[in-house]
Amino acid sequence: MAKIVVALGGNALGKSPEEQLELVKHTATSLIGLVAAGHQVVISHGNGPQVGAINLGMNYAAEHGQTAAFPFPECGAMSQGYIGYHLQQSLQNELHHRWMNKNVVTMVTQVEVDPTDSAFQNPTKPVGAFYSKEDAEQIERNKGYVFKEDAGRGYRQVVPSPLPKSIIELDSINTLVEADNLVIAGGGGGVPVVKTDDGLKGVPAVIDKDRSSALLADNLEADQLIILTAVDDVYINYGKPDQKVLRDLSSREARHYINEGQFAPGSMLPKIEACLTFVDGDADRTALITSLDHLDDALAGKVGTVISKTGALVNE
Ligand SMILES: Nc1ncnc2c1ncn2[C@@H]1O[C@H](COP(=O)(O)OP(=O)(O)O)[C@@H](O)[C@H]1O
Ligand SMILES: NC(=O)OP(=O)(O)O
Asked: Which residues are in the Aspartate/glutamate/uridylate kinase domain (predicted)?
């Protein structure tokens, strides 16, 4: 039996509640498959598109005098509830379908960040919808938001993405996991909070969920970190005619490709860095990056990129 932290990508969760529920149902089948195989599974997820959509909706309602203004950390907490609800329901339905009995719980999770983190001066985390260059420039002028190009897919608003320092609810998560519950935690990288003289305080930012998931996996002493996103594999020369699948990577090879600039900042780079943080902690640990659709194939070794301290296979 292995302890596995599975991180689901926010961009791979679809663009609407209907799409998300459909995608999550499919992923629930594979996740419960892992549970049925005897593994201890902890689930985390991204929230970039979702927190951006919630924030836009709340801003619109506030600008039209229909609601009070909702700060960004509150929007992050809402995204944890929204995505956690779909995950809980889909996992519970799949458990029921298989006549399995297990409690599923979403933990609203706060993650401590450093208020002096330089990320607050340099927003990099893409959130919300994709825009054309012209539309992004117009919104920048009208609202003062910052936009950046996101991995060739269009322009998106970016917000600060400080590094996760500690998981506030770690003890509760650990207790629930050890009591054999299926736990969803660290959603959206956790709601970012800073420690002040008056206690914890939310800050407007989005922590990278891959980095938080690596911290969670390390803190829970997990054996494996699985990052599920929109692509089946990690590539070098991604999107070019000579792109090549990386099936199996040692830490050393991964660092070499990072230095070559093979992984886009804001998308694949933080995933690779998160995997390195996790696997460098212990030689027996592995990390797997694959798509939400092909987890079963990846576990069978047919697709996906495995990262470990020493590497095992030869790349195709
Ligand atoms: N070298 C690469 N190999 C594979 N995908 C890459 C690479 N560089 C950038 N990407 C992009 O990174 C995306 C995954 O990052 P992102 O969309 O931020 O993930 P998520 O929201 O699922 O966590 C892929 O869908 C792909 O477009
Ligand atoms: N919080 C976060 O990293 O979200 P995405 O996975 O959507 O980028």
From this structure: 3-282
